[in-house]
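Before the break, one more example. Copy the sequence into your notebook; we will annotate it together after we see the structure.
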Amino acid sequence: MLLNTLLIVLSSQCVWARKSEPSFNEADAGLFRGSDKYDFAIEVPAAEMECFWHFAHQSGSFYLMYMVQWVTGMANDPRLFVTVNSPQGVLMASKNEAVGQLNFQTEVTGFYRMCLGNHNNKFGGIRVFMNFGVIYEGFVESKGEMEEGEKVLNSTLTDIEVFVSIIHGVFKIYF
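Here is what the structure looks like once it is written out:
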């Protein structure tokens, strides 16, 4: 745990990071108060970290869900070290698991940093599915949007389960 924390601190100045929203000045801060969400998959190379920034206003409900889809190379540990920091650098949430969900109320307006660290594997990458965003009070998604999101998530989870069962079958044959 201490090693993971040290690695996060030392690599916090990640040059190749991504921001999910354009920078707003204070005059534009009130324009967007709905809900925003993103979902995609990314590969985190061996012993490295990928960081993303996501803009959120104060008093929003921030969520991050992730799931390791597969490991590559000589990776043998599916756990992923995930942290979310506030715009001031305060640690808001962290986990070191293969599947996880982080939720918290945003306390300040600004860019929240999410980092995915593959520090448990020195010789293999990990592919991770991410779903994150911010929901503001008073925003209600239509029933159709919610059902569509559930269908996509269930389909993705089913595909992952099938893939994992195939991999387990292959390992049983060869090992």
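Residues 1-32 have pLDDT under 50 and may be disordered. DSSP finds two helices and nine strands in the chain. Try to locate both features in your own notes.
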